[in-house]
Amino acid sequence: MKRTNKRLTSVRFLSQYCEILKPEGVIHLKTDSDFLYQYTMATIAENNFQVQVNTDDLYASGMADDILSIRTYYENQWLERGKTIKYLRYIPHDRNLTEPDIDIAIDNYRSFGRDNTNRDNIETKK
Prior knowledge:
Blueprint: H1 11-20, E1 27-31, H2 34-47, E2 50-55, H3 58-61, H4 73-80, E3 86-91
Antiparallel strand pairs: 1-3, 2-3
């Protein structure tokens, strides 16, 4: 979260995605992270991308189809802990991309490893 060029929806990555996407190709982002969701929404606005779908609670929205209903190990973990899953589908372009100049609160929770040995030692901050 702290390093912009490491974010999956940063200008750096969007430029790479545009190299492999066909024209008008879409990006699907499904995330538990409020930070990544807000950052991506700001990036979309900054660069005038076309948003096709936007929900801050995928499973309450009724949009979860056969594909979107597939849950990862970590997604199940977040749902069990009361986090919502956000979903965006948008069309990027690679013309004059700029990073948004915003401050977003960093997510303060951490995942449990697959082996769950540290599950009881990790505290979730609210």
